[in-house]
Write a structure and sequence with these properties.
It is built from 4 helices and no strands. The chain is an all-alpha fold. The two termini are 24 Å apart.
């Protein structure tokens, strides 16, 4: 069984690193809270794109084809 989208909020790590304030503002609003200024020490952990780090990327793409996670 899955949860209705109103019951969960997805936070993408790459978005959190790239735009911490904007990502957390959206999270605060989803929680019904007023956004507040935040500070983060998040930094990218790899200079590579995720796609360049996956050895079996073709297999992953094939497995995800046709799903909402298709890449």
């Amino acid at each position: 069984s899955s949860f209705p989208s109103s019951q969960y909020h997805v936070v993408d790590y790459d978005a959190l690193v790239k735009d911490t304030q904007g990502t957390l503002d959206a999270t605060f609003r989803w929680l019904g809270l007023a956004p507040v200024p935040v500070h983060s020490t998040f930094v990218p952990t790899s200079p590579k794109r995720v796609e360049d780090s996956i050895a079996n990327l073709d297999d992953v793409r094939a497995a995800l084809r046709g799903t909402k996670w298709e890449i």
